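Posting here for the record, re: flavin-adenine dinucleotide.
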Amino acid sequence: MSDEQQKKMPVTLLGGGCASLSLAARSNEFNSHQFTLIEQKDRIADDHTWGFWAMPWLSHVVPKTHKSWNHWRIISTNKTVELSSQQHPYCAISRHEWLNHCRAQAIDFGAVFSSNSNTYGTQQVLDSRTPATPENTMLQHFLGHEVKSDKDVFEPSTAILMDFRCDQSQGMHFIYFLPFTSRHALVESTLFSTKLVPQIFYENAITQYLEKNLGCKDYAVKRIEQGVIPLAELQQLDPTLTGIGANGGAIRPSSGYAFTFIHKQINQIVSTARPGQPLLVNRPHSHFEIFMDGVFLNVIRCHPALAPKIFMSLASSLTGDEFAKFLSGEASVSIWFKVILAMPKLLFLRALLPAKESKKI
Ligand SMILES: Cc1cc2nc3c(=O)[nH]c(=O)nc-3n(C[C@H](O)[C@H](O)[C@H](O)COP(=O)(O)OP(=O)(O)OC[C@H]3O[C@@H](n4cnc5c(N)ncnc54)[C@H](O)[C@@H]3O)c2cc1C
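Prediction output follows.
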């Protein structure tokens, strides 16, 4: 470590995922803090795609995206809503590409990497290790196939964020479809429920969707991605440390989106850093957002069959820019007003009742 690095306040980053590496990659913006990132090499996750809307705090990420879409659709059995935005396109980035970029940048800017978890003592520790998920938590669980076809079968200008034309028997279920080119796409079968389903369920949903809805029968599966995201406000893994990323409250309970909120949290850490002071880390969602998300999840838990109607109504009530802002935690009072007006009010009012009562609805 150089003399200059030794004069800085040491900060340990635990875990080598999105939050830690994205923060370490901005080491050049910290004049008085020195990062050491502790990661276990045997824990490197498989590649997957992060989706998010382009927002000002992601201006350094957007140029690295694999593909972006100015149009996106939400589809149910009897309706399609298409939204567009020039300012806030929906973007997709590869986990491995982004983390490799961050790692290289972090090394260039003087961050230190270690696999020895005994190297942190009394210094500040920012902990990004995965928090525990309590039993009976609502989960977003999914399996995706990255597929390639020999024919032009996809419409690459429009992403399909939710298509509910699939088996709804196991909970709220939709297909997430990102067409990278007319022959290359990511197709994910995604459920919101408390229990996972057998792998064959997601696979059948993907095959049927490609065949029935897109007329695509001949294709090769190039990559599989799978994940489970807890839809809840989770307790930090170790309350004596400072949580960041998913362990610092970054997952938005109603959507499972976290990438954009991790970067919002990092921006806040950068902008509040002061010489000689430990870094400040705020949870990126307001109490109001967490409360409203809890009410929404209560409705989906009790009435999964109403999910298509609720999401169609939400999408129909907003412009593309408003939708992007709402899902990125930037909703103004007027956006919230439109969202609340679009929801089935009696159900939402009943979902305000304590959990036991609301199950009787
Ligand atoms: C498959 C998948 C797809 C997703 N897609 C999206 C998306 O499209 N958009 C979006 O906004 N969000 C998405 N998310 C949610 C979220 O963005 C990711 O989970 C994101 O990686 C969270 O970043 P993080 O740094 O908090 O955690 P991670 O990136 O998971 O990093 C945690 C790190 O801690 C390490 N670690 C964990 N436990 C321990 C331990 N006990 N000891 C030591 N090290 C440990 C891990 O190896 C990892 O390096 C997705 C999540 C998954 C799993």
